[in-house]
Amino acid sequence: MIQIGIRLDEEIGRIHPHIYGHFVEHLGGVVYDGIWVGEDSDIPNIKGFRQELVEKLKEIQPAVIRWPGGCFAETYDWRDGIGPREQRPVTVNWWYMNDGKIESNQVGSHEFVEFCRLVSAEPYFAVNATTTTVLEARNWIEYCNMEQGMTTLALKREKNGSPEPFNVKYWGLGNENWGGGGCMTPEDYCHIYRKYAIISKSVGPELQFIACGPYEGIPEWTEKFWAKYKEMYTVGRIAPMYGYSLHYYVTNTGAMGSELEYTGPQWYEMMRVGLDIEPFLQSQYAMLQAALPAHPVGLVVDEWGVWHQLYGKHPQPGKYLYEQAGTMREAVLAALTLNIFNRHCDKVVMANVAQLVNCIHSLFLAKGSACVATTSYYVFDMYKVHQNAASLQTEVEGKHITYTIEGESYEIPAISCSASVKDDVLAVTLANLSVEDDQDVLIHLYAGQYTGTGTMHVLSSPSPKDGNSFEEPYKVTPVEQAIAPAGSELTVTVPKASVVLLKLNCYSHKPV
User: Fold this and answer.
1) 94 in Cβ contact with 71 (< 8 Å)
2) pLDDT for 280-327, tens place per residue?
3) 447 burial level (CB within 10 Å; 0-12, 13-18, 19+)
4) CA-CA distance, 299 to 285, in Å (whole number)?
5) What distance, in Å, lies between the first and last C-alpha atoms of the chain?
6) 274 C-beta neighbours (distance < 10 Å), count
7) How does the average pLDDT of the chain come out, rounded?
8) Interatomic CA distance for residues 163 and 120, integer angstroms
9) Are 338 and 379 in contact (CB under 8 A)?
10) Contact 328/334 with Cβ under 8 angstroms?
11) Residues assigned a catalytic role
């Protein structure tokens, strides 16, 4: 039996709601036929946005949404997306070389901010730091945020239908500048970041700038970036920074099978690579702290998820670039990732799963009038209880899984766990990484006791390859049951390849 100890007297920190963020890029079917169908569409919509998606997304409390890219951001001109839609230019999308699609610019700053308001999320804008000027980036911030009537750009925003400022707080200065964002060296990018941040900060003291960090394959980027960044100390000027961006994809190039066809070892290989995000976060944060001991900066994992790069054209529905089916494998991977973010909420201040709809690790599939919530959507629905709660120390002891793939042997834990407490409600989220066995789990509560009854929510299916599709939109959904813990111990059975949420009333023995 697996034993988990949860300590009510050892809090890691507050779980920032922005850890449960999302990503909308002008890529494939994310925007057009994804979130946007147009105001004249026969598909039910709210101000042009797909009504069913808006309503379902709002239910899971999406705290923040990143836009317009991704790689798309590094050739985006914000002026193309303002003014009367019928007069906006048609341009070449950054992804044109992959799918031949052009950009209509029907969704620009005004529309995206409206989408965020409809779902009660904060907007996070990614700024073009490669093919535009520092002044144009600063002007975009002024256009969005300056008070009504104060400047010519504020008047222009009013003329375009938005007298009140957008108050966009989060600005990412560049995207993947080590790759599609200009193939820069960390020193080159650091020089650009410093310029953008120091010039743009005059538009508003509330602005929070996010710098481009590495993806998992080039961790050394960080050391070189911070060495260059610290040169500013000699002149006494520090370019402001709220967060440092990391990208982490569990990239399937074949060793993990395909989306729907894989062996047990291939399942476990995906879980192992997903678990490796934890030491990546820890090492990156250690470098960040060493470089800036007096200036707290958080980690922003603004792209993460499973990416079946060789298999992303599966006919479910198989229409858009990098579209892929979502099964219980993606759901379990999402759950273990969110557990890691919860346990490192003292380091991670934001995370954005890639992407919202019709692309990579989607929460939705949309086509025509149909809109389907994937298995990963239900993980976010179950985990929303953690937002703004206090993350608790957890200790997991017991079974590990050993497997061999491509001649190498590996070991992973059977259970991933995180726990939080808010208003005397304890939330425990569990992911069973075993594709073969149910797990009996004994949960000890230290420095407190369970009170009354609780609920157990289980997301599982007879086959781990099951998911939701246009033909079977509700094939995999959570099932709820009552449970009755006693004292300070609770035993539950977690089905194979499943995600579980336990919601339990409790009280602490800690002195008030």
Assistant:
1) yes
2) 999 999 999 998 887 789 999 999 999 997 655 565 667 889 999 899
3) middle
4) 7
5) 35
6) 27
7) 94
8) 20
9) yes
10) no
11) 176, 303
Q: Where in the chain are the domains?
A: 14-388, 391-508
| CATH class of the domain defined by 14-388 | alpha beta
* Token pair recorded at residue 363: 């929460």
For 243-266, b where at least 16 C-beta lie within 10 A, e where not — what string? Answer: bbbbbbbbbbeeebbebbebeebb
Q: Which residues contact 214 (CB under 8 A, 6 or more apart)?
A: 178, 220, 221, 222, 246, 247, 284
pLDDT recorded at residue 507: 85
Residue 184 makes CB contacts below 8 A (sequence gap 6+) with 177, 178, 192
Q: Is residue 32 predicted with pLDDT exceeding 70?
A: yes
- Domain 391-508 -> CATH class: mainly beta
Per-residue pLDDT tens over the stretch 322-381: 999 899 999 999 999 999 999 999 999 999 999 999 999 999 999 999 999 999 999 999
Tokens linked to 76: 């985006």
CA distances from 157 to 46, 82, 312, 407, 428 (A): 21, 8, 39, 60, 45
